[in-house]
Amino acid sequence: MTYLNAVNNTNYENPEDIQIFRLEKGISLSMRNDASLILDMYLNIYEHQSTYSPNMPLRSLLYLAEMYKILVKDKDLYGRTLIKIPTPKFVVFYNGTEERPSVETLRLSDAFIHKTDTPDLELVCTVYNINLGKNGEFLKKCPVLAEYMQFIDEIRQNERTGDERPIEKAIDWCIEHDILREFLKEHRSEVLKAMTIDMTFERREELIRRDEREAGREEGLARGREELLKALLDLYQD
């Protein structure tokens, strides 16, 4: 609820008003989004990126199409009565190491081969950079994301100093300093596993990107979504 209020500048307090609505499977095994919910007939679709990708509007369009298919499956699409659907809102939380603006806007129309000032179809994603030092006021409104980034920053600092146990040390430090304390104490093993897998993917992609640069290619690689952040978002939706 806190991150939803932070994004929308609202003050909803009753978690029972929220309808969790996340794709667990769809047209392919990859058709799974990070977090989405319906509140006050707004369909809020949230994604997390630790590797920047300009393709979020296209991905979000596919997610939205699957969600609307579910929402209207029992409706008469050929009838004369207008079918009302929740208003979508697309947000991306970015915490990668690549320097990005504090807030940026990605548009589906940027991907169109034939450019037009009046696209017949548009989808806009707002990307919030949640790294420490970016969007400080936004993070103040959303303590769970602020604490999450303190945890991530501690891991990165441990890596920079060559610590052999950067994740475990960061977990211990956060518990000691009352940062995500209860969550980390209860889910320590899951967090350690998820972050270890994530770091493995991140290093692998860094090597691949380096090889691509050496070969003269500029294509980026999309990485897996952050399991820890999804778990945190799930926890704070309850």
Description:
- By secondary structure, this protein is α/β, with parallel strands linked by helices.
- It starts with a helix and ends with a helix.
Protein topology:
Layout: H1 2-8, E1 19-20, E2 35-39, E3 42-49, H2 56-71, E4 87-94, E5 103-107, E6 124-129, H3 136-141, H4 143-160, H5 166-176, H6 181-186, H7 188-214, H8 227-237
Parallel strand pairs: 3-4, 4-6
Antiparallel strand pairs: 1-2, 2-3, 5-6
Termini distance? 8 Å
Q: H/E series, N to C?
A: HEEEHEEEHHHHHH
Can you tell me the overall shape?
globular
How many β strands by DSSP?
A: 6
Q: How many helix segments?
A: 8
Considering DSSP H and I runs of 4 or more, what fraction of the residues is helical? 40-55%
Helix/strand-derived class?
A: alpha/beta
- Strand residue content: 5-15%
The low-confidence runs, each spanning 5 or more residues with pLDDT under 50, are: 216-225
- Mind describing the biggest β-sheet? 6 strands, mixed
What is the overall pLDDT average? 83
Q: What value does the Rg take, in angstroms?
A: 19 Å
Strand order of the largest sheet: 1-2-3-4-6-5
